[in-house]
Design brief:
The chain is mainly beta. The protein has one domain: Lipocalin, CATH 2.40.128. It is 11% helix and 46% strand. The chain has one helix and eight strands. The chain has an eight-stranded antiparallel beta barrel with strand order 1-2-3-4-5-6-7-8. The protein is elongated. It starts with a helix and ends with a strand. 20% of the residues are buried.
């Protein structure tokens, strides 16, 4: 009889401990602002991105760009950017050569700059494609 009573008590406890209105825990997805350190790759022409590319995006519309996987890359450039909706667009000039390039990409707040294109001078196309991931 004690075993039967124990089974009934356990059965009741299991089916009444959490009703259907218990809250469902939804994982929190981090959101990233555009400001921060970014690392990715770029490609020339129709070549898939495979060359290192890094960028520091600062508040107030300023950027520092470098060839290579770190901002301490061999060629450093300074420039400006704008955000219109999710489109990140900018222009930068290399300090050593004076060459200017422009770019644009789609930003998502999960820390990705995707479907990027770049070009010479003021053109955001014609040079190749690129992408980056936010690092901090």
């Amino acid at each position: 009889m004690k075993k039967l009573l124990l089974v009934v008590v356990l059965f009741t406890a299991v089916f009444t401990s959490c009703k259907k209105d218990c809250p469902v825990v939804t994982p929190v997805v981090p959101t990233y602002p555009i400001e921060g350190s970014w690392v990715g790759k770029y490609g020339n022409g129709a070549t898939a991105p495979s060359l290192g590319y890094s960028m520091v995006v600062e508040a107030g519309g300023k950027i520092v760009v470098a060839d290579g996987a770190t901002i301490n890359g061999s060629a450093i450039a300074n420039g400006t950017y704008t955000m219109t909706g999710n489109v990140f667009k900018g222009t930068y000039t290399y300090t050593s050569s004076g060459l200017t390039f422009s770019f644009q990409a789609n930003f998502n707040n999960a820390g990705k700059l995707e479907s990027g294109t770049w070009g010479s001078g003021a053109s955001v196309t014609g040079g190749g494609t690129w992408y980056m991931d936010r690092k901090n």
